[in-house]
Amino acid sequence: MLNxxxxxxxxxxxxxxxxxxxxxxxxxxxxxxxxxxxxxxxxLALDSALSLVLLAILLIYVVxxxxxxxxxxxxxLYVISAALILTGIWEFALDLLLDFIYTxxxxxxxxxxxxxxxxxxxxxxxxxxxxxxxLYYKNYELQAELERHKEGQSALADAELFKLRQQLQPxxxxxxxxxxxxxxxxxxxxxxxxxxxxSEFFRGSLKREDKKFISLQExxxxxxxxxxxxxxxxxxxxxxxxxxxxxxxxxxxxxxxxQPLMENAIKFGLYGTIGQVKIQLDASCDERMxxxxxxxxxxxxGSGIRGTGFGLSSIRxxxxxxxxxxxxxxxxVNEGLFVAELKLPIYHV
Amino acid sequence: xxxxIIIDDEPLACKMVEKYLQAHPEFxxxxxxxxxxxGAKAVQEHQPDILFxxxxxxxxxxxxxxxxxxxxxAVIFTTAFDxxxxxxxxxxxxxxxxxxFSQERFDHAIAKYKERLPQVETDSNWxxxxxxxxxxxDRVVLKNGPKIHIIPYDSIILIEADxxxxxxxxxxxxxxxxxxxxxxEKSLPSDRFLRIHRSFLLNLNHxxxxxxxxxxxxxxxxxxxxxxxxxxxxxQALKERLQ
Lengths: 349, 243
Known about the structure:
The structure holds two protein chains of two kinds. By secondary structure, chain A is α+β, with helices and mostly antiparallel strands.
């Protein structure tokens, strides 16, 4: 009901106190007045109480109304006209009520002389209340806006941090550094080669996100870089084969679709099974589609890898956002092999 | 002489440890393994004094491998990046080396090992604690004679206390493991597993319905038709959960 923050936080005891104080001061002012002082004390008291209570009700209504409608332009005009109209309504209502207080026509005539005094002071009070209330409301909105903004900022920062971490692939990075550390002793040229590959890989992963589409060749080169590093780490077990049909290399593909698929294949091949791991990628194309098939050994008992997660759902989501299709990535388990089949509509860019 | 086994799925990582160990000729490397299964076998065979053990390895991780052992040698973990595991090591005073590590750091770990050698614990208590605090995987690994079984949490139906052991009833059959029931109560996900009796921990996904038997006692009827006793507090907990 009470929509305005000023009313929501209103302390009703203070409000009543202020009202009574106002009624009292009006009563004493009128009583001390040479003209209105002639009127009966009881009548004056009733008049003060009635007029100010009526005003209070009106103001609460107006302030509450501001919660639903706030002008954003011509504010000065709005305040003035609202004050005048509301005061007019108030005077009209009060006039009707005063008939019940001043039963003697002469008294009523005397009271009527207060009309312009009342009008002037009341419109000042109404205008002031509307202005304060409007400012208060604006401030409140601004605060809420600021808070939302702050929350949004921190959510964004969290997302950024997560992305950065994903990019860094700490497990991959530190294990590769460990391999390099070992190679420095046994095979310095290979150590040097691996440092360069690792740098190129991470530079690539930082750069590629800016682009919307890259050529399949570029993506494959990047995958090879990754595979070669893994080859040094797991040389004894890892075997990879990339077969690209001629003519498909120049097709454009979105980044970060092929690579996470390959990472999954390697992760689940290397950590989910024991022994030789053969990972095969086949790419072919026709005039409408690019078909990519990635195959890795798979053990349904699972690798128990936790936290690293199977990123398939996020790849599907990405494909949906890019092509508005849900059927582009199919996976199946077939005699100890995990097969991911990806279709990419060809974009002529 | 300290008999030493190195277990890491990356050959170069094993080489690194071997190289650092050259500075400590009193350590004799009796085996180098690249996965948890051969690792566990080598440990049973050689009864080493100390293990250098990687955490993330194919099929079963380093912790799961330790669970397969009857007697634990001293362990120094080598790991690249496992947030959870690192926290667990710190809480439980197991030593670990973060890859890549230096000869100095390695020597320090060796010195620490020798220092506390007289009182190296041989019980598997700390492995249990680590698993309890930071379960790295959602499955139970156990040994049944020469066979190693990997049981995903989903296929566990019921766990029953049996002295020092528990009996694990699964979709594939019944297994025994040397653990307490309260260990499983703590480490298994509490949204699925509920202690319905002093001796029973039930996977709620396998519960069909409840039945009232004689003397006001309830029985849980499982999806496979088996009946399990439910204690009064167990019944209260079940009622709360199923609402």
